[in-house]
Amino acid sequence: MRRITGWNHPRDDTPLTAGNAWVLDGGLVPLPDCRASVSTETASASDQADQRRATWMAAAQGGDRRAYERVLADSVALIRAVARRQGVATDALDDVVQETLLTVHRVRHTYDPARSYDAWLSAIAGRRAIDALRSHGRRDRRELHDEFALDRHPDREDASADAERRQQARRLREAIAQLPPGQREAVEQLGLREQSLAEAAAQTGRNTGALKVNLHRALKALRGRLHGDD
Amino acid sequence: MAEPRSNDSLIAALGAELVPVRRLPPPWLRMLGWLAVVAAFAVLLFAHYGDEPMLRRWAGAPDLAWAALGAVLTAVTAGWSAFTLAVPGRSRAWVWLPLPPALLWIGASGLGCLRTWLAPDTSIATLHQSADCLVFIVSFSIPLSALMVWLLRRACPLRPLLTALLVGLASAAASASLLEICHAFDAAATDLLTHALAVGIVIVANAAMGGRLLSKA
């Protein structure tokens, strides 16, 4: 990840709320009780982190790209924690992270900098985690969980299975054809021709990040078309 | 595909797409915007009917005034809850806010039924008049719901079904409040039933339709 040094206060026109926590923190530190002091310090440290992310997101709403990338990178751990708490499997965590980041991107205007960023993000992450659990549930029900099924599968049904496969392939081709041009291009280059990101970027003249976003959105759209997911 | 790298490249790509956004106004302000449209309808109805028939009915049956107050408060609180719940991170407990006014609205309307037996002289709505009520409530609710759904789509309702229920309740209560201005007769059992039916239609239609309408937002 690109490290950002020399972070400046965002040139944002909204009042920032970070100062309040620091004043509060300063007042709490000289408490005589050690344990109380440690726990309040932990609480205020997470408060401060929340305030910091709130400040970055406020700047991002104004179009500050560095603040935006910083707050998104900072959000990944929190999203994973929320998803894990909801019971999302480890191998599916990054799907939830990416879905959440895409949602954050789409609805970033709904964040109110006067309120907790963490609460806002957790609500979105929690929702995407539930979506992931649901779609996994659906997929699991559809898939066949019998390791001997393939062996026992009678050969005489090959013809109809073949026809079904052809039909599925046709449906997939149709669904791909209906995608917006950018997404279709990403699927064709990365998914069907199995090119690397760099090769596809060189061929299409798009940067690798844009290709990734397009592929991600395309796969989501295809899942929705073929499986009836939302 | 190394996942941490893929998260980073997604973040970089989203950063590259970043443009400044106009922040969503607070829920209360958005609710006031919606209520302003309801108020505009009220002004039109008052201009046409005047306030005299409404006040005369209320003087004769004070429970009708309570029912009207309950309906107005239900519209306000349900609207506020809907706009608040459409912002991620707000407490779901706000969904209960419209409950007390809704109970007042339904309870006070229910008293009208009792009066039918206690004071049989009051003019009771015929089935034909009740059908008019139904048409009135539904035809006002549709534009009010549509407006609210349109406003909510700019936000991010993470619980589309719950939000749609609140939209239905708010618009049904708002149109029942408006009906109060030009209601030509007293509440009766058939009348209350019509109200309940109309409110139910609006809520179910909103939940069925808005649930899907809102989830894409």
Helix coverage percent of chain A: over 70%
Please work out how many helical segments of chain A DSSP would assign: 10
Q: How many strands in all of chain A? A: 0
Q: What profile does the largest beta sheet of chain A have?
A: none
Query: Can you summarize the main beta sheet of chain B?
Result: none
Query: What would you give as the CATH superfamily of the largest domain in chain A?
Result: RNA polymerase sigma factor, region 2, helix turn helix motif
The outline of chain A comes out as: globular
Task: State the helical fraction of chain B.
Answer: over 70%
The structural domain count of chain B equals 1
What is the SS-derived class of chain B?
A: mainly alpha
- What is the structural class of chain A? mainly alpha
How many extended strands of chain B? 0
> What order do the SSEs of chain B take from the amino end to the carboxyl end, as H and E?
HHHHHHHH
- What CATH architecture label of the largest domain in chain A applies? Orthogonal Bundle
Tally of individual domains of chain A = 2
Tell me the Rg of chain A in angstroms: 23 Å
Number of helices of chain B: 8
CATH class of the largest domain in chain A: Mainly Alpha
Strand coverage percent of chain B: under 5%
Alpha carbon gap, first and last residue of chain B: 30 Å
Shape of chain B: elongated
